[in-house]
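Below is how a single chain appears once it has passed through the pipeline. First comes the sequence as given, then the structure the pipeline wrote out for it. We keep one example in the README because the format questions we get most often are answered faster by looking than by reading.
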Amino acid sequence: MVEAARKYQRVFQTGSQQRSMRENIVGCNLVRHGTIGPITRVVAQNYPGPWEADLPAHSIPQDLDWNLWCGPGPVVPYHPDLFSPRANPGWISFRPWSGGEVTGWGSHGFDQIQSALGMDESGPVELWTVGPKYAPPTYREPEGRDRGEKVCREPRVFFRYATGTVVELSDGPAGGDCLSARKAGSGSTAGSSAPNLTRNWPSAPCAPHGSWAAITSRTGTTASRAGNVRGRMSRSAIAPPRSVTW
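Resulting structure:
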């Protein structure tokens, strides 16, 4: 791909979805430059790994090359809820076609951690789990994701960076993160949040939905959540009053 772009003198760009969103860029920059202090703890969602599929066979649509769809993987019976990416529950939840949501939404949430912590050239140095062994369910009939997600909430996963920052995969927001900084005599947090951003870590759990972008602390640093919500960022308690709007 690189050789083709050079040969034909074309500009080619690729990247992670949330890296190009203004809210995420501004939010990660604020954290990375120490706006809320050194980050000691990050809470993200405990994304489920892949589940097993044993769905009953259905007739293959005439306009679908099912062997081509299966590709180099095993050729299994066709089922519409396997063919669709997110259905009941869809191939994104099943191996060997996917790594589950840990490689789906997880790729965005973990990327925000890397960006906010300034760790693009590195990564965690230690990883451990707490709880029972991961036991993925088998889907033999179409059904929603609730059963699999409930089963796969455990074990909780932790990893640590060389800086000492510990990441916990538990009840964080999908595609986002809650980052916590500890300062002398005060607490602060950054991450995805509900519209009311004034809260003290860890007195309230992370909001269950929303992209990483919101920042809040006792010192008054705030930012609106990402997504379709627009808002204002203020650093009046950290620097001379100013704001960034979008």
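The helical segments are 2-7, 22-32, 66-70, 80-83, 105-117, 146-151.

See the next section for the split statistics.
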